[in-house]
Amino acid sequence: MKVYKEVIATPDAPPALGPYAQGVKVGDTIYVSGQLPLDPSTRAMIAGGIGAQTERVLLNIQGILEEAGATIEDVVKITIYVTDLDHFDEVNRIFAIFFPAGEHSQSLPPARATVEVSRLPKEAAVEMDAIAVIGSGHGAADMY
Q1: What CATH number has the domain bearing residue 61?
Q2: How far apart are CA 11 and CA 89, in angstroms?
Q3: Taking the CB of residue 98, how many other CB atoms lie within 10 A of it?
Q4: Distance, C-alpha 48 to centroid of its chain
Q5: Is 34:140 a contact under the CB 8 Å cutoff?
Q6: For residue 96, which phi and psi values (nearest 5 degrees)?
Q7: DSSP SS3 for 105
Q8: Residue 38 and residue 122: Cα distance in Å, rounded?
Q9: Is 67 in contact with 12 (CB distance < 8 Å)?
Q10: Is 89 exposed, middle or buried (0-12, 13-18, 19+ CB in 10 A)?
């Protein structure tokens, strides 16, 4: 069986800033390119602090995943890039809204890395990329 690469494009996330796709789907796996806290309709940086920027990034990722037939619960790995690790707690607070974990959660959190970087495009404070597998988020409640 031959598997093909499919480019994912959606108006629910900002267009790529360079010669790359918002996301790529290969089989049931989706690779989401680094997302910045840009408003999809205006392409402007989201006003507000790290919390607002983190939320916008995750909403952009969610939009790309939905275009590819996945959900945010299908994310298996995410990498977070921040310009200041002092924002770690606030990033985690917003992250937990999208990826609740624990005994009463219906989903399992993804694997994750957080990396402090010196600078991000458009002077963003946060950027994330993600890998998802369609359908992997279902049945998580059976694990508890």
Answers
A1: 3.30.1330.40
A2: 30
A3: 20
A4: 19
A5: no
A6: -65, -25
A7: coil
A8: 9
A9: yes
A10: exposed
Structure tokens at 84: 């200041």
One-letter amino acid identity for 98?
F
Amino acid 82 reads: V
The encoded tokens of residue 117 equal: 């970087």
> Do the Cβ atoms of 136 and 107 come closer than 8 Å?
no
Walk along the chain (144 residues) and give the pLDDT tens digit of each residue.
788 999 999 999 999 999 999 999 999 999 999 999 999 999 999 999 999 999 999 999 999 999 999 999 999 999 999 999 999 999 999 999 999 976 666 778 999 999 999 999 999 999 999 999 999 986 544 444
- How many distinct structural domains can be found in the chain? 1
Task: Give the range of the structural domain holding residue 74, as residue numbers without chain letter.
Answer: 5-143
Residue that is written with structure tokens 């205006």 in the block: 42
